[in-house]
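We close this part of the discussion by returning to an individual protein. Part of our work consisted of pairing the sequence of a single chain with a tokenised description of its backbone. No coordinates are needed to read the tokens, only the vocabulary itself. The amino acid sequence and the backbone structure tokens for this protein are reproduced below:
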Amino acid sequence: MACIIDGVSETAVHLPAAAGRDAAHRRLVLQRIQPGLVGLIDGTISTLAPIFAAAYLAGSRAALLVGLASALGAAISMGLSEGLSDDGSVTGRGSSLSRGVITGGATFLGGTFHALPFLIGDVTTALVVAYVVVACELVAIALVRKHFMDVALRVSLVQVTLGGVLVSVVGVLVGHA
């Protein structure tokens, strides 16, 4: 576990506030990127288990509906959680309303993208397409973390893939119960 955490640089942990451009970058990361990243990660990973379990148990239509319901529920929950957890006055993280909307919207997108392949009636084909979509989502998350959070790409890919695999395995196991 230490090798996974070691890939995060000191600048990512402390996000030093400097004059001019550095202060603007810090504000962007704290007020926009981080809330969006939290939502995208949660939406992508937390909805995998219910979607894949539904696909294995009941087919494509059920997986689509469970996926959309999971994405909407997670978006509302995450948006409220982010918005109500900090008004920004102490932390400088900006407006709670904007952070809540950003987090909720990103959560919905992250949860919806891999539900859409279940518009395909054949569950086997839909699952293959969904796995590819999930892989693309996880790579996109890793790239955002690399660019804005200064996390090594290899480390970020390992971290997000591990999370995605763990939750996917839960969905497959429950779907085959």
